[in-house]
Design a protein that fits this description.
This protein is α/β, with parallel strands linked by helices and 276 residues long. The protein is built from 10 helices and 12 strands. The chain has helices spanning 8-29, 60-65, 81-91, 104-112, 137-146, 157-164, 174-184, 189-193, 210-225, 254-271, and strands at 5-6, 35-40, 47-50, 56-58, 73-78, 97-101, 122-128, 149-155, 194-199, 202-207, 234-237, 243-250. A hairpin with a 5-residue loop joins strand 11 (234-237) and strand 12. Helix 1 (8-29) runs antiparallel to helix 10 (254-271). The radius of gyration is 19 Å and the shape is globular. The structure holds S-adenosylmethionine. S-adenosylmethionine (SAM) is lined by residues 14, 42, 44, 59-60, 77-80, 83, 103-105, 129-131, 134.
Length: 276
């Protein structure tokens, strides 16, 4: 497997998820009647190479496998067959790992979420970490409706800025509008993304800031999906301080929000490169 180099912001993301997964598993393990599971929907190959040190870095699935106390089950999905094979080798003989090769939007809805209803006494932490606009809103909404799932979600502002939002909304490409509609759940992102402003020559459409669009999505996670607690996300920036993606967390539990807020506060300087 050709493992990819990752940058400091990915290492910050992995640190955030590792810390919360440990806290989550510790709390859920105290409740004997619950089975708690970890789901990595865009799992990747399980290992990366650190750009700063050249060392191997454990990816999100391997991180989850090393959490103590352990999750009862681990569900890892990737579209790329080679990455799933790499995960299979890393998982070895572990009986608590289930691998899926395919589109996670279908696999979550058809195979995994139906086994996470309230009545089944099962709870899940689910990582939704695509490279771009590859996640469908129905997955997010279903996770909220089930009431048993907490999510970390990558809001891909770089992909959105690069491919969807153009200065004049009339010039947006139909394929990109379709991708954004699928991610947002409808076309209401247009109102959030563009504001009409008066100028000397009449009116012009102005693209909103990254933070404004992310805040509109945060509100949507609460008002439309139905998550009770969605703290302010962490913005991951590259070395030029350009925004790459926002890492969101959403849950029905106030205690979860409190723990994640503290973890976000700890990692925010590293993610935004304010330490250097
Ligand atoms: C950002 S990487 C995941 C990195 C991983 N979370 C980590 O931190 O180690 C995204 C992964 O999603 C996979 N992918 C892309 N579209 C997908 C889809 N529709 N369903 C499942 N996996 C997908 C890609 O093959 C890639 O391995």
């Amino acid at each position: 497997m050709d493992y990819k180099e990752i940058n400091f912001w990915s290492e910050a993301k992995l640190g955030i998820i590792r810390e919360y997964a440990t806290a989550y598993s510790t709390i859920l393990s105290r409740h004997e009647y619950f089975t708690h599971v970890y789901i990595d929907a865009f799992a990747g190959p399980g290992l990366h190479v650190s750009k700063s040190t050249g060392d191997f870095v454990e990816g999100s699935p391997l991180n989850a496998l090393n959490v103590i106390p352990p999750f009862a089950e681990h569900h890892f999905i990737d579209l790329d067959n080679k990455r799933v094979q790499a995960l299979e080798e890393l998982a070895g003989e572990r009986a608590d790992v289930q691998l899926y090769n395919g589109d996670c939007n279908d696999i979550l809805m058809q195979e995994i979420f139906p086994r996470l209803t309230f009545k089944q006494y099962r709870r899940a932490l689910c990582l939704l970490d695509p490279y771009g606009l590859h996640l469908n809103w129905e997955v997010v909404k279903t996770a909220a409706e089930l009431g048993t799932i907490e999510i970390f979600l990558n809001f891909p502002i770089h992909d959105i800025n690069r491919n969807v939002l153009v200065k004049n909304p009339a010039d947006m490409k139909p394929r990109q509008i379709e991708r954004m509609d699928a991610f947002w759940g409808d076309n209401s992102w247009r109102q959030a993304a563009y504001a009409t402003e008066a100028n000397l020559f009449g009116f012009e459409e102005k693209v909103c800031s990254n933070d404004e669009l992310a805040e509109a999505y945060r509100q949507r996670l609460v008002d439309v999906a139905g998550f009770a607690h969605v703290p302010k996300p962490v913005l991951m920036r590259n070395s030029n301080r350009a925004g790459l993606y926002y890492l969101f967390f959403a849950s029905q539990k106030p205690v979860a929000k409190k723990i994640v807020k503290d973890i976000f506060t700890k990692y925010r300087p590293a993610a935004e490169r304010r330490l250097f």
